[in-house]
Amino acid sequence: MQSAPHVEFRGVSKTYDGRTMVVRDLDLRVQEGEFFTLLGPSGSGKTTCLMMLAGFEAPSSGEIRLSGRSVQHLPPRKRGIGVVFQNYALFPHMTVRRNLAFPLEVRGISAASRRQRIRQALEVVRLDGFEDRRPAELSGGQQQRVAIARALVFNPSLVLMDEPLGALDRRLREEMQFEIRRMQQDLGVTVVYVTHDQQEAMAMSSRVAVFHRGHIQQVAAPETLYEEPEREFVASFIGDNNMLRGHVRKAERDFCDVETPGGTVRAFPVHGCRPGDRSVLAIRPERVSLTKPGVYTNEFEAVVEDILFIGDHLRLRVNLCGNPNFIVKIQNTVGHSAVLEGDRVRIGWSVMDCRALPDEEGGSGPTPVNQQGTENRSRSAVDAGKPKTGRTNDSVLAQSHREDGV
Question: Can you give the C-alpha Rg of the chain in angstroms?
């Protein structure tokens, strides 16, 4: 018999004014030991979900369970959850040792055990020897490590992180991504992580839930989200995608022909389709090639509008049949470096690299999916298209200090 999920949301909704739903009918399951990220733009509902899980906000309806047990009426301090905030929330007048001791004292841990746990926590975040420093004497990255150590020091089985790297510069943020992932894997602790940064989510996570307007659009491993987006928003939000809109002219099980302003494009129908359906096609720039005639099923003439040099590759913006913002990403090689602005080129891509999704623009909003997402069609079914060759407010912080000691 399969064990209960470590974290489970059952039909959870949240509204602050009784009218606008910040989170709507959320079903979500996180397994023990996962690094699970809630990803989405500002206002999508991801942080509200984290605050409800921590106990700082109450759901308007639905139920939240931890290891099969409802926590609806448990205060934060009794949920056994560590929390790391974007602004660290360290006590500035306390040393590192005292900051880490605080949640242990709140829980009645003995002095001897406190010393041992503080030492172990600082070793995990590689800050042993910093016990007597105050936050003002630490760098931003060191302060973040102290905040993580404080969340881990009382041995929680679940740690919540709300945009913890948002205040760091790019280089330090990338270093901390590796460090946080290493710590999570070494300890085997479950992490629920909130961010709007897609690269951060893709680099660190076991699975990612993509939020939009209070709904989950798709839940999957990072590789699946990138290679096999199932909704228009996911395709546009994760990485770069060229989006072409049109109507389905012909529909078969393993491919469909979509009439676009630039001509007919053959694509892989993610959810199936019927003639007359509105569709949006998603093609990754790196899957588009400069080609000779007859290599790909989908081939078009285009004019190079401009070229950006990005080191190991070139980013071409081309005008494709009146669409001046179609992007082609090619390796920076001797042959390709001869491409100039104004050149007329032939571009092509395979059927399987072109995903036909329901056109949701102008609709009533994205349709929610459960935490399993919708069933993916097999990518191996078609080979015809292959080449023929920070935001936590003061009241929440005060409550977290007072009730949970995090």
Answer: 25
- The string of pLDDT tens digits covering residues 74-117 is 999 899 999 998 888 899 999 999 999 999 998 899 999 999 99
Cα separation, 189 vs 124, whole angstroms: 13
Q: Using alpha carbons only, what angle is made at residue 326 by residues 320 and 329, rounded to the nearest 5 degrees?
A: 120
**CA–CA gap between residue 269 and residue 280 (Å, rounded):** 10
Residue 381 pLDDT grade (very low, low, confident, very high; cuts 50, 70, 90): very low
- Are 71 and 65 spatial neighbours (Cβ–Cβ below 8 Å)? yes
Phi-psi region of 239 (alpha: psi -120 to 50; beta: other; left: phi over 0): left
Q: Which CATH superfamily is domain 7-226+396-404 in?
A: P-loop containing nucleotide triphosphate hydrolases (3.40.50.300)
> How far is it between the farthest Cα atoms of the chain?
76
Statement: residue 357 has pLDDT above 70: yes
Give the helix ranges, DSSP H, for 188-212.
198-204
Query: Are 352 and 386 a contacting pair, CB within 8 Å?
Result: yes
DSSP secondary structure letter of residue 208: E
d(CA 380, CA 383): 7
Q: How far apart are CA 147 and CA 121, in angstroms?
A: 11
Query: Cα 7 to chain center, whole Å?
Result: 18
Separation CA 151–CA 406 (nearest Å): 6
What is the predicted pLDDT for the residue at 227?
95
Q: 3-state secondary structure string, 26-43? A: EEEEECCCCEEEEECCCC
pTM score: 0.84
State the DSSP code for 277. Answer: -
Predicted local confidence at residue 336, as pLDDT: 57
Spacing of C-alpha 88 from chain mean position: 21
Q: How far is CA 273 from CA 126, 130, 194, 277, in A?
A: 54, 60, 34, 7
Identify the pLDDT of residue 168: 81
Please tell us whether the domain made up of 239-362 is placed in CATH 2.40.50.140: yes
Q: Which of 291, 317, 318, 320 is nearest to 387 (CA)?
A: 291
**Three-class SS of residue 338?**
helix
Gap between the Cα atoms of 100 and 134, Å rounded = 12
Going by C-alpha positions, the residue among 58, 56, 161, 68 that lies closest to residue 397 is 56
pLDDT in tens, 230-251: 999 999 999 999 999 999 999 9
Ordered by start, the domain boundaries in the chain are: 7-226+396-404, 239-362
Distance CA 318, CA 335 (A): 18
